[in-house]
Amino acid sequence: MSNSAFDLAIIGGGPAGYVAAIKAAQFGLKTALIEKEKVGGTCLHKGCIPTKTLLYSAELYRKFANAGEYGITTGSLNVDYPLIHRRKEYVVKRLFQGVQSLFKKNGVDVFSAEGRIISNQEVSIVSDGIETNRIKVKNIILATGSAPFIPKNIPYDKKYVLTSDDILLREEIPKSIIIVGGGAVGIEFACLFNAFGTEVTVLELLEDILPSEDKEINGTVKNLLIRRGVNVLTQTSLEKVEIENGVKLEIKGVNDISGNREFLHADLLLLAAGRVPLLDNIGIEEMSLNFDGQYLRTNEGMETSQRGVYAIGDITGAPLLAHKAINEGILSVTHLTGKDMHIINRKNIPRVVYSFPQVASIGLTQKEAEEMGYKVKIGKFPFAANSMAIIEGESLDGFVKIVSEEKYGEILGVHAIGHHVGEWMWGLSLNSILEGTVQEVSNAIFPHPTLSEALFEAAHSIVDKPIRNAVE
What we know:
- This protein is an alpha/beta fold.
- A hairpin with a 2-residue loop joins strand 4 and strand 5.
- The relative contact order is 0.11.
- The chain contains 13 helices and 24 strands.
- Helix 1 runs parallel beside helix 4 and helix 3 packs antiparallel against helix 4.
- It is globular, with a radius of gyration of 24 Å.
- The strands form six sheets. Strands 1, 2, 3, 4, 5, 6 and 19 form a seven-stranded mixed β-sheet that branches.
């Protein structure tokens, strides 16, 4: 057993961990990355990348199904889901190989094992429950990520009752599926399977699906799903699940005091009711680290209450997003090397739901801003009056909404539903970093015709009046 010395050991090789490892190596640190599965983490292998690959195929299918509207005649249209599945595997494999080559190029030492902290200067490398190595370190970064939440009363069998991890392994389109949870994951899978003809039901305990989004947005998404045949049941609790060559669910309305129960049947049940941080068996039990609820507490540089021990990614709390994790990875390495760093403003983290159409947002909702005491001014513009949205046949229902502070024009939040609106949310993050106002957005020059012009018009509707306030 060797006892190598490293400047930094990172436990967990997801987006937070592998980006931190590469950045540390670029800064000249001798870096060890310890990952028990495959580098790339949930995002690459079980989350962002595979789901978006499937969703892209579903979006193409929707386009082909409506090709006649664009003057294109097609023959019979069929879905080869096993082939779609294989393409997803190809995309994941290609990106996985890319991450591996980046480690090699930057000189990161990768240990395919579990990492357990012995002290803030020593880490044990464990394979199959046996310590195979022990390394001395100057700093440690914890980046162990999260896993789907599985309620204890649910008979989780990975055949009929699945998580998002499990359903990505299936090569068949179910005839019917019930999705528990109306957040981003649940709605994305609802759109995916609905596009391929599955009978879809969404159960959400709260009043709205996509409860983190602006109320106008989640209301629009709900109506769209219902029009497409998705059964959306909000304020509904799951009482019992039985497996009977499929699933049988007992449900009830949250506000139903009569005690009435309803029953639903489907081929599959997908659990999409949140995620939990993975903090067991990594050696932190004896370190007296501070927590905020179930998440590790850190300072602005991502350092925990134990000097030299950092935490990044999903284990530090909401939002549980890959791009937030990536930025925390860079920030932690910047902090531990003593370089100038930019503090992450968590209100400045964009969110995207890859539904049809996409939902994207940043900052406060109108309700949140008003509850915080802001006197707000709202600017809103529909894609029904946007040239490119009409050209692409994606103008129905979508809009852009800006929530601004009335006196100075500070942009408190931006919310959009429309075709690929996630692609230009980075600009709102930059605007926030530069402390831009709604006046400055209205002064910016947007190329024409583009979908992003809806943002320009929404800004003008606050500053003065929108230019195109009727359908072109």
